[in-house]
Amino acid sequence: MAFVGPRPERPAFVEELGRIIPRYHDRACVKPGITGWAQVNYPYGASVEDARMKLAYDLYYVRRRSLFLDLLILVATIRVVLLQEGAR
């Protein structure tokens, strides 16, 4: 597991969402992370539509990952956790 990357889901959810949402498994081509682009940009959600939106953020990260983007995510995570700003 990395500090930054798509947040891991429970295996049962991955299997179900992989059947429902096209390209859902593409997020697995990078190591999962403790925090990610979806977590700092999208509020908590438990619906399939929320999973689709978070997938868009995860795939953005997969396509554009870089040290700069990782640092940006870490700073945003600090703002969300410590300062209670941004996504929840």
UniProtKB/TrEMBL annotation:
Keywords associated with the record: Exopolysaccharide synthesis, Transferase
GO biological process annotation, one example: colanic acid biosynthetic process
Coiled coil: none
GO molecular function ontology, one term from the record: undecaprenyl-phosphate glucose phosphotransferase activity
Top-rank taxon: Bacteria
Domain Bacterial sugar transferase: 1-82
InterPro entries named in the record: Bact_transf
Family: Belongs to the bacterial sugar transferase family.
Entries under PANTHER family matching the protein: COLANIC BIOSYNTHESIS UDP-GLUCOSE LIPID CARRIER TRANSFERASE (PTHR30576), UDP-GLUCOSE:UNDECAPRENYL-PHOSPHATE GLUCOSE-1-PHOSPHATE TRANSFERASE (PTHR30576:SF21)
This protein's name: Sugar transferase
